[in-house]
Automatic annotation (TrEMBL):
The keyword Amino-acid biosynthesis does not apply. It comes from the Bacteria. This is Heme chaperone HemW. Residues 1-241 form the Radical SAM core domain. Probably acts as a heme chaperone, transferring heme to an unknown acceptor. Binds one molecule of heme per monomer, possibly covalently. Binds 1 [4Fe-4S] cluster. The cluster is coordinated with 3 cysteines and an exchangeable S-adenosyl-L-methionine. Belongs to the anaerobic coproporphyrinogen-III oxidase family. HemW subfamily. The keyword Manganese does not apply. It is found in: Cytoplasm. The gene is hemW. Pfam families: HemN_C, Radical_SAM. PROSITE patterns: RADICAL_SAM.
Amino acid sequence: MQHLYLHIPFCHRRCSYCDFNTYANMEHRIEAYVEALCAELRMRAAQEHVPVPRSTEAAALPPTIFFGGGTPTMLSLGQFERILEAASALVPLEGAEITSEANPGTVLGRDYLRGLRSLGVNRLSMGVQSLHDPTLRVLGRIHTAAEARQSFEEAREAGFTNLNLDFIFGLPGQDLAQWEATLAAITTWGAEHFSLYSLILEEQTPLFAQVTAGNVVVPDDDAAAAMYEAAMMQFAAAGYQQYEISNWARSTPEDGRLPRYACNHNLAYWLNSDYLAVGAGAHGHLYPRRYANILGIDAYIKAVAQGTLPVATVTALTPEDLRAETMMMGLRLNQGVSQAHFMARCGLGLDEAYGPTIAHLIDLGVLESDAERIRLTARGRMVGNQVFAKFV
C-alpha cells in the first residue's frame, strides 16, 4: 500500500466549529487506543491488497503516512514510535512523506519536536487558524497567536524543513482589512506550505448555534470571496504557487507543474488513488469500495480486541462513481485532470465519458482545456462546487 491515514481522535478541548470525530477529556484512553490502532494495522497488513490502475502522476508520488485528528501531538513519542513500527508493514518508511498534524497549544517544546523528527516525521501541519486572539477564543482554540509563532519557531529549531500552516477565513467578526493584515504577517514566516479554508458552519456545532441565535456574526459569501481573492494575490506576490483550491506551496522554477512542497498525501486524494485509513471513524478507499470505521473510541477498541476489523460501513463504487470522483477530486488541482490520468484510472477518455458536459462548462467560462488536460478557470475556482456537481 502506498498511502496510509491514521486517525488520532483526542483533543484537550473541542473547537466550536469542529464536527470531526474527536473527543475531549479522554486522555485516559489514549494508551488503549494506541494498542488497538497498532492491532488494526497488523490486521490490515495481513490482508492481500490488489493493485489498482494508477496514472503516471499518481505512481510518481512517494509513499505517505498522515497522522490526523484530533490532535496527534497528544501522543507520547513512544506511542508515535510504536504506531510507525506497526505502519511500516504496510507503507515503507524509507523515503516516505510522514506528516503529523499539530495543535500549537499542545506541541510540547523543542525536545518533543526533535524526538518527533528523529522518529521519521518529516512534515508538520500546524492548525493556527487565526492570529486574532479574541477570535481564537471564540473558536475554542487553546493557543494564542504568540504561542502559534513560538511553536513554529521551535519546529524550525527542531529540524523541520517542511511546515504547513492552516488558517480559516470568513471567521466571526473578521473583515477584509483584518484578513489582509493576517496574510501580510504569515507570508513573512517562511512556511513551505499554507492551507486556507473558508469557514463552514456545520450543524450540531456550538458555533452554528451561536450564529443561528444571532449571538455571533460571520462575513457573508461576498466578503468571504473577497478574502479568498486577497489570499490568491498576496500569496502569489510572496512567491507561493496555488496548486489546489485551498492550498499554496513555496515554488521554484525547476519544480514543474507542482511545487516542491505540495502535500503528497493530499495529492493522493486529489488523484483519486487508493489509500488505507485506520482508527476510529477513519475513511478508506480501496476501489471498488470505500469503508468507514466505527466512530466511538471504546467501541473501536472493543471491536479490535475481538480480532475483527472495526469497519462500520462499506460502500460499493461503480465505474460511474470512479469517473465522477476522479473529476471532482482532480479538478480541485490547478493543473486539472489530464487525459492520460483519466484514461489510466477510469479506462476511457475524457471526451467519451463527459464530452458534452465539458463543452458546456467551457462555454460557460468555468473550464478551459488544451490537448493534455482540462482545468478550472479563475472564475471556475470561485464556483468550484457547482462545477463539480455537473459530473455527478
